[in-house]
Amino acid sequence: MVKRYLTVTSLSDALSLLRTGFSCTPARELVPLIASVGRVTAEPIFARYSVPEVHLAAMDGIAVISRQTRGAGEQHPVMIKQAVRVNTGNVVPPEYDAVIMIEEVQIDHGEFIIRKAAPSWQHIRPAGEDIGESEMALPSGHRIRPHDTGALAAYGITEVPVLTVRIGLIPTGSELVSHGTRPAPGQVVESNTVMAEAMLVALGATCTRYPMVKDNPADIKKILEQAVRENDVVIISAGSSAGTKDFTADVIAELGEVLVHGIAIKPGKPAIIGRIDRKPVIGMPGYPLSALTVLRELVTPLVYAFGLPVSSFGTVDALLTVSVSKDIGSDEFVLCSLGQVGDRWVLTPLSRGAGVQMSAVRSNANLKIPAGVEGCEAGKIVPATLTVSRAEAEKALLITGSHDPLIDYLADLLQKKEIGLHSTHVGSMGGIFSLKKNECHAAPMHLLAENGDYNIPYLEKYIPGEDIILLCVAERQQGIVSRTGIGFDDLVRHSFINRQRGSGTRMLLDHELKIRGISHDALQGYEREVTTHLAVALAVKTGEVDAGMCVFSAAKALGLPFKTVATERYEIAIRREHLDDPRVAELCAAVTSPPFREIMDRLGGYDTRETGVRRVLP
Amino acid sequence: MVKRYLTVTSLSDALSLLRTGFSCTPARELVPLIASVGRVTAEPIFARYSVPEVHLAAMDGIAVISRQTRGAGEQHPVMIKQAVRVNTGNVVPPEYDAVIMIEEVQIDHGEFIIRKAAPSWQHIRPAGEDIGESEMALPSGHRIRPHDTGALAAYGITEVPVLTVRIGLIPTGSELVSHGTRPAPGQVVESNTVMAEAMLVALGATCTRYPMVKDNPADIKKILEQAVRENDVVIISAGSSAGTKDFTADVIAELGEVLVHGIAIKPGKPAIIGRIDRKPVIGMPGYPLSALTVLRELVTPLVYAFGLPVSSFGTVDALLTVSVSKDIGSDEFVLCSLGQVGDRWVLTPLSRGAGVQMSAVRSNANLKIPAGVEGCEAGKIVPATLTVSRAEAEKALLITGSHDPLIDYLADLLQKKEIGLHSTHVGSMGGIFSLKKNECHAAPMHLLAENGDYNIPYLEKYIPGEDIILLCVAERQQGIVSRTGIGFDDLVRHSFINRQRGSGTRMLLDHELKIRGISHDALQGYEREVTTHLAVALAVKTGEVDAGMCVFSAAKALGLPFKTVATERYEIAIRREHLDDPRVAELCAAVTSPPFREIMDRLGGYDTRETGVRRVLP
């Protein structure tokens, strides 16, 4: 019987079903030692023989019988009758029980004279010093690290028995094109099984990606039967919802049973757990972040139940910068940027659109908000789950404020210093408020004041009395982007796309409208907001609107005409207390570096004469 | 000119030479997306097109023109004239600017009736929502994570330009046999270039391992010339010291120059930095842990200078449990076991023998003791460098005390629970002192008291008044291992090998000798100490000694005769405060688990009737 969202199962119930409803017996395979790195031992690994197998000299010198050296001293040289010359690593013959370093031996007509007694076992590496024959070198369930291979090679291990879980991945959807093909409008690149394979292989699974199948129950059924035969687990990508073209649940029900359809997680609700021939069959939703969530929260624990360990980086308590609201009843997982500002961890949610893969790319942590609550308020301390090591998260540089393509290039330069620049685009005013609350390291801004100056009047007004430095990135051209080369005064006759409230670009627009006495209503599309310069240029390029306001580099990147409206000072505001922070120091160094200047020259529209100039609030 | 240890270079000077003395220009290669996981981007990766490229429906429903929905309400149904049916993911035609969910639409004779106005852009995924054409998806220098592949696939990236450093690895040494060959006495398995390849490939390098070369300058020279031609960096394994068969420095000097011979690090002092055709040539010492240290402290920073990021897990401040002494003048790196006992991090050095690879296998941290000091005292707080994630280190279970092969099997069982059991073999008395200082989670012991009882009298004497629980692992047979089947009373006529002071086995021996009125001197080899049961059995098996005392399972593992001397209670002492610690709880569960009982039955010599019995100190 197909269950169609009759009941949505909680995540914890779904997980316990996965653990208890299946035998979860992993497969075992032998892999060559050098290929075993990252794999998980299927059984304890024992040394085949002792290392070393016999006593070896640990120094260059002579092997002696220690009791024959007794009595030797500075004033009492002893001539050793029975000795043999050995180099480091040579076998010490059984009759000897000590080595004397060659520097301490006087050689006289082929006789060895010593002036110091040798305790027994001096400078000898005893047999089995490293490991004894039959001793356990590695336990089972151990993920083999690169340096383990040296030890295993030395212990006589050439092939390693490792665990695996064979997972079949079936991409479904008539709209799919394979990756490498440029999708036509309405087509989608099949990327979810690519991601799934990469994630699961990293855990130690063995994946088979089957050919893409159109939304046709007969075709899906045929390939699902094959995949169940050939694997321990099958994942069907997409078609798991309850729409007219969603056949995953029907097909699973035909071949076996649907145990769960709909799990109380967001993103990822349309997930399915089915069983065919006693094997788990997972229906994975098609939205990339839904798929990612199901892989991380459902499939990874399943693979763990098969014995493959999952590395976790733990959690840190962090201050949430933005309120997150949600519906009661589902565990929600929010991808976030996490960083340390001063001695506090600060957590900023990224876009929650289930299609926004860049949120996954940008995130270094996630926040689980439990089913029972309606959300989390800004300012609360919440447990952030790290998705990178804590040491890496400690290198995150948090930039909040106005967006400019240059910020991405600063990220590129800083990545080479192992600093991860996390940029949150909330506009110049948003940056000021973040800086005020000390929730970011730096706030880029370009706010034109009444007196013609940039930024300082706003900082004085909103963060009075604080010790803040402004570092000039560049003076940049803002203007009108269009397909036809129109200027500011033509805007009223064309459709327009705006930037979000609080962005400096919008404030510049309002300023220019006010000068000319044009009302907002006169601008068709004034209410349509996007958050980046590139998004403005893109809406123009696709023909959605005729014009918008953005920086020159965004227009140039898309090959669109641009008419300059103003040149504005784009500065980064930094609290003085953070200037010595190594991350902030590297940011400042990057801004004034020659490679960055070259980038600005190449992108165009940036006047770099003021680049690097620091201003201090009066 | 060859420099032969004339001066030893400090590590920091050697590192700055590597950074400044070479151009360190990485190679760049294109790899298919799925093979790019773990590799490092050579340049920023930009989206080839916007995702989505056009506006898409985010819900199943109808696409509408939002201004035609104005005025709709519960009491004011509006019939929509112009609308089109869309499913999630369908293209929203350009004339529409909102989607209304199908659940909110009443369909009446093919007409759509709504009762709620739709704001513009409702339920639409705008073009470029995920990423805009030409937007930067990843910076350069980014190590590609598994889930990044999904995004890159979706953004039209099929091949990824990644950095690499081509590294040639030349194993030298006449004593080498290739891995898979059982070494004859005095031969050594060539494992260092296996380890080097695994470590360097994990960083993103491309390695070529050249055939093994005997200690012959002409042969080494020939292969070195080839390796320099074919790579960016060459590493010559072994032969880097100043002995009579160490030719690495000579050969480098013939083809180029030796910049450094001898670096003030331990282990790893004989390292060489040379330059041939402007390329770095590293001489890596032959001892495995010397090689590991040079790879980690010298080669890894070199690879970093080529642009390959190195993940670090940071440091924690930890209490050092054992004093470490060293010579002034060298930075010494000590491999350690790190764990958290209560709220303290506790750090225990592992064997420092440069041939003891098991120290690397067992370690999860290391301690750098700077050149200027003579060592570190027990009880000091020192910075421990993590070599696993902090979250993994937090799962370390520290067991200190008497050794039994069963401890390795408990490690095997606990690894499946992702608990890393770190066992330090210091004998039963050593365990008591560790427990007294609260520097371990559990202390295995088997100490026979005058009154015939085990362990409790010792705990009462040395840790009076503490709340300690004893968990019985088993009653185990201790006895005499030999090649000829001799018993205790034959010991005086044979050579013997002892266990270390403070071990329960040695105390049992002393007890049995005392009963029989036999003096220590009567036992030939009483002073020769090893630290494990297996090491005793091994010394017997190799013919080094005739007999020793150990547990039955060690004799059985090596197929040696065994004569029982006593059955003793092997218990684990645990402070009550740690019983609720999840790691300790899992340890207790493992001891009483059926798989563990099966292991004891299989190994033999363990009476399990008392297994799991808890005793509390009176």
Structure described in brief:
Two copies of one chain form a homodimer. Chain A is of the alpha+beta class and 618 residues long.
Q: What is the topology?
A:
The structure is a homodimer of 618-residue chains.
Chain A: H1 11-20, E1 27-32, E2 45-46, E3 56-57, E4 61-64, E5 78-80, E6 83-86, E7 98-101, E8 105-108, E9 111-114, E10 124-125, E11 136-138, H2 148-154, E12 159-164, E13 166-171, E14 176-177, E15 188-189, H3 192-203, E16 206-209, H4 217-230, E17 233-237, H5 248-255, E18 257-261, E19 265-266, E20 272-276, E21 279-284, H6 288-305, E22 315-320, E23 324-325, E24 331-341, E25 344-349, H7 357-362, E26 365-369, E27 375-376, E28 381-386, H8 390-393, E29 396-401, H9 405-415, E30 420-425, H10 427-436, E31 443-445, H11 456-462, E32 468-482, E33 496-499, H12 504-516, E34 529-530, H13 533-541, E35 547-551, H14 552-557, E36 562-575, H15 582-591, H16 594-603, E37 606-607, E38 614-616
Parallel strand pairs in A: 13-16, 13-17, 14-15, 17-21, 19-24, 22-25, 29-30, 33-34, 33-35
Antiparallel strand pairs in A: 1-12, 2-11, 3-10, 4-6, 4-7, 5-9, 8-9, 18-20, 20-21, 22-28, 23-27, 24-25, 24-26, 26-28, 31-36, 32-35, 32-36, 32-37, 32-38
Helix pairs in contact in A: 1-6, 3-6, 4-5, 9-16
Molecular structure report:
The structure is a homodimer of 618-residue chains. Chain A is an alpha+beta fold and 618 residues long. Chain A has 5 domains: 11-26 and 165-305, Molybdenum Cofactor Biosythetic Enzyme, Chain A (3-Layer(aba) Sandwich); 27-44 and 138-163, Molybdopterin biosynthesis moea protein, domain 2 (Alpha-Beta Complex), CATH 3.90.105.10; 56-125, Molybdopterin biosynthesis moeA protein, domain 3 (Beta Complex); 315-390, MoeA, C-terminal, domain IV (Beta-clip, Beta Barrel), CATH 2.40.340; 424-616, 3-Layer(aba) Sandwich (D-Maltodextrin-Binding Protein, domain 2). Helices cover 25% and strands 29% of the residues of chain A. Chain A has 16 helices and 38 strands. In chain A, the strands form 11 sheets. In chain A, strands 31, 32, 33, 34, 35, 36, 37 and 38 form an 8-stranded mixed beta sheet that branches. The interface between A and B is large, with 122 and 124 residues.
